[in-house]
Design goal:
Order of helices and strands: EHHEHEHEHHEEEEEHHHEEEEEEHEEEEE
Low-confidence stretches: none
Distance between the termini: 28 Å
Mean pLDDT: 92
Radius of gyration: 19 Å
Helix content: 25-40%
Shape: globular
Largest sheet: 12 strands, antiparallel
Structural class: alpha+beta
């Protein structure tokens, strides 16, 4: 088996020894391993596109967090190329969602087994500097409003130093100043209003925290989790419910599933996808129309 690992060195630094063990396990199983290191945002996608064009690799492995995975998936989705994941990010939500192993030997065995399943990413069309941004693929979720404000404000240096704790620190500061403007949402033609919204392909958010009752990775469509009240107190209640797995029970949260989602606001509102900055509203979210062949053990129960 010919494998190519595309490594985000910022994420990989935190799991350097496990990554070494993962590579050794692949090689012990007879795989040829090539490692490419990304140098800047977007570089992983460029590398993946080149590998797909060459057509000489059995599995492209994303070694990084959800943002790195989405970047590489953008290049691989819609092709016959098989993609694998070595979780090395801050939250690794997709790996948790799909039961992808974190242990190096187990992660290598999954790649070597040839196991594969199809997932259906989403695509978002947003705005950047007042102009339409290029469509961007996402594999786990998109956030519009407060959580995206946190991602936009999070200093990259702080994220690199302390990982998920950086989000918590930035969130506390953002909660004091964010205004929670009204958001107009249209899902499959039906109108709603919210103060914050997460459009999710999966059940999990921010780690192993359940935000909605069903995952939709293996089919087209999304669950839109809409927080109908804004402010510090409702946001703290939302966070507490997330920690306890009770978001769907909150009286001021509405969860609606659909395939075509349009989001507008009177003023531009920040947007994030898979933990990366993705411009501002207005936004349209839909199925990418390009399935992704991902190394998943379909007999295992995701954690």
């Amino acid at each position: 088996m010919r494998t190519c690992i595309i490594l985000n060195p910022t994420a990989g630094r935190r799991r350097r020894e496990p990554l070494r063990q993962f590579i050794e396990a692949l090689q012990a199983g007879g795989a040829q391993v090539r490692v490419l290191v990304t140098r800047h945002a977007g570089h992983g996608g460029e590398q993946a596109r080149q590998i797909v064009r060459e057509g000489a690799t059995d599995c492209i492995i994303a070694a990084g967090g959800d943002g790195t995975i989405a970047e590489i998936a953008q290049a691989v989705a819609g092709t016959s190329q098989r993609m694998g994941i070595f979780p090395a990010g801050s939250a690794n939500v997709l790996a948790l969602e799909l039961g992808i192993p974190f242990a190096p030997a187990a992660a290598a065995r999954l790649i070597l087994s040839g196991a594969c399943a199809t997932i259906w990413p989403g695509v978002i069309e947003s705005t950047r500097d007042g102009r339409p941004a290029p469509p961007r693929l996402f594999v786990q979720m998109a956030g519009i409003g407060f959580d995206a404000c946190v991602v936009h404000r999070l200093p990259l240096r702080l994220k690199r130093l302390v990982g998920r704790a950086g989000y918590v620190l930035t969130m506390l500061g953002a909660a004091m100043t964010y205004r929670f403007p009204l958001i107009d949402v249209r899902i499959d033609g039906t109108a709603y209003q919210a103060r914050a919204i997460v459009v999710s392909k999966g059940r999990l958010y921010g780690g192993a925290y359940v935000i909605c009752p069903q995952g939709m990775h293996h089919q087209a469509g999304f669950c839109a989790i809409m927080q109908e009240k804004g402010g510090i107190i409702p946001t703290l209640r939302m966070g507490w419910a997330l920690l306890r797995g009770r978001v769907e029970q909150m009286p001021d949260v509405r969860i609606v599933c659909g395939r075509d989602i349009d989001i507008h606001a009177a003023t531009p509102i920040p947007v994030q996808t898979d933990g990366d900055i993705s411009g501002t509203t207005p936004v349209r979210i839909r199925d990418a129309g390009r399935p992704l062949r991902l190394a998943i053990d379909t007999t295992a129960r995701p954690s």
